[in-house]
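hey so i finally got around to running the thing on that chain from the lab meeting. sorry it took forever, my laptop kept dying and i had to restart like 3 times. anyway pasting the input first so we r on the same page abt which one it is
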Amino acid sequence: MSERTTWQRIARRIRVPLGFVFAAVFLWLARPTGKTMLLSLLLVVPGVWLRAYAAGYVRKNAELTFTGPYAYTRNPLYLGSMLIAFGFAAAADSWVILIALTALFAAIYIPTIQSEEAYLREHFADFSEYAAKVPRLLPRLTAARFPVDENASGGKFSWQQWQHHREYNALMGAGAIYLALAVRLLLHHRR
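ok and heres what got predicted. didnt touch it at all, straight out
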């Protein structure tokens, strides 16, 4: 078993709860405008779509996924999360939020990704070849090609996988944040 650093273990455990704390601080500091909220859609919509698309392909801990968005980036779910988060930072129109978000992603997601890659390298013999062809986060322009594994699930999008990973929560969460920002915008304009 590969050795994980203490921070990698902590980062994996606290990333979701810390996200809720950050969301509360975000809403407190946000100063949205109609323009920033509309512009944020340029990042949030593709981020929600990418997370949904990736969730329909991945079979966590069961097989190495290298089809669909995983042929472009090894971490499409995290890339989608980053697009969503930075989209909302744009909607909030706050440099403090942008800086805090960047620090949060660096502190939490870098060690989490490293830890997950150590696990994948340990459990899937093809991971090193995959990692050599597909970038960690920023996507390739064309899909990497891999031999088809007859025993794999076929590498096709599955709505059942999407539901299994409860990726509809990202869409509902984004909608809830936009609603909260709209309320904040309306209350701010009434002052």
